[in-house]
Amino acid sequence: MSERNPRYEQIAERLEVIVEELDELAFDELRAAAADGATSRPASDKRITAARRSIEKAAHLLRDG
Question: pLDDT tens for residues 29-58?
Fold first, then answer.
């Protein structure tokens, strides 16, 4: 891609906001599990982490294509 499309950067920025929201969600899930006395990570944490990585990768691809 010889010329950058500014929309790519705009979308990448929005994806970064979603990554931050997923981080907050994951921490909330971990806090709730700890408060409930869980001794292992909740199953939802694995899904949230996988989604976060995928979205982070998408943002990276849009920026560095």
Answer: 999 999 999 998 899 999 999 999 999 999
Calculate the CA 51 to chain-centre distance.
6
Domain boundaries, the chain: 6-64
3-state secondary structure the chain: CCCCCHHHHHHHHHHHHHHHHHHHHHHHHHHHHHHCCCCCCCHHHHHHHHHHHHHHHHHHHHHHC
Q: What is the model's pTM?
A: 0.83
Q: Tell whether the torsion through CA atoms of 35, 38, 43 and 46 is positive or negative.
A: positive
Count of Cβ atoms closer than 10 Å to residue 1 Cβ: 7
